[in-house]
């Protein structure tokens, strides 16, 4: 689970890469859930929330950049 302080320290490129990795993981988890092979169901929720954290941070950064 990504902490918001850890995410704030990352650059925009690192955040985009992390977002891509999490989206791939979410895709794989959905497949595992559909085939009843999901070992840790709580991971789906964690990944979704981490994706939301990154998107929120990216939106805030772009809004701050536009305001300057």
In short:
The protein is mainly alpha-helical and 68 residues long. 79% of the residues lie in helices and 0% in strands.
In N-to-C order, the SSE pattern is HHH
* Main β sheet profile: none
Number of DSSP-assigned strands: 0
Percent strand equals under 5%
Can you count the helices? 3
Overall geometry comes to: elongated
What gyration radius follows from the Cα positions, in whole Å?
Answer: 14 Å
Weakly predicted, low-confidence segments: none
Give the class from helix and strand content and strand pairing: mainly alpha
N-to-C terminal Cα separation, in Å? Answer: 32 Å
Oligomeric composition of the shown chains: single chain
Helix content: over 70%
Mean pLDDT rating: 95
Keywords: Ribonucleoprotein, Ribosomal protein
Family: Belongs to the universal ribosomal protein uL29 family.
Protein name: Large ribosomal subunit protein uL29
Pfam family, one: Ribosomal_L29
Commentary on this structure:
This protein has 68 residues and is an all-alpha fold. The chain has helices spanning 4-8, 12-34, 42-67. The longest helix is centred in the last third of the chain and has 26 residues, at 42-67. The protein is elongated. The N and C termini lie far apart (32 Å). One of its GO terms (cellular component) is ribosome. Keywords: Ribonucleoprotein, Ribosomal protein.
């Amino acid at each position: 689970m990504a902490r918001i302080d850890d995410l704030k320290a990352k650059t925009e490129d690192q955040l985009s890469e992390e977002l891509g990795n999490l989206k791939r993981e979410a895709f794989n988890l959905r497949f595992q859930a559909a085939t009843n092979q999901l070992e840790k169901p709580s991971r789906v929720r964690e990944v979704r929330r981490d994706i939301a954290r990154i998107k929120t941070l990216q939106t805030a950064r772009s809004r701050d950049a536009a305001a300057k």
